Request: fold
Amino acid sequence: MAQIKLRSLIQKDMSAFYNIVTQKAVAQAAQIEVISDVTAAQKLLEQLLNNGHVLGIEVNNQLVGIITWSNKITATGAPDFLNWELNYFLSEQWWNQQVMTSALKLFLNRVWRQHPELILWAEVRPDNPASSRVLVKLGFELFEHNFDDYHHQVIDMYRYQVK
Reply:
């Protein structure tokens, strides 16, 4: 089994980050725009670094994926500090090898030690059953199906809460 760890994402990760976010299958699975040039990748990396809620996923000391999180926004537009939205993506060469399951398990263990009251949310497109399986394996439950007006498709919303 490969050694998997989480670490801070840094500007020096640009080359590996670019290699991940320019993969069309990764962009589709992560529900992000396909990145086709270095400038767009640099802009996305800077947004993630400025957000501050981002971790890199390393396998054998190589950056292969990203986990981000942010406060959900209430109906009034205020941040909800007890509900976080989780996003993640992984280089296609590491799919179906338990890497994301292991990385998210590390992430969840970190989060629950510091914030046991949190509820985590994750959106998954129905055409990404592998991501749904990862979430269910980690204890997330399918909460609802939403229609995404922007992308004109159904999105499955999963919820995780410490019980």
Observations:
- The chain has one domain: 4-161.
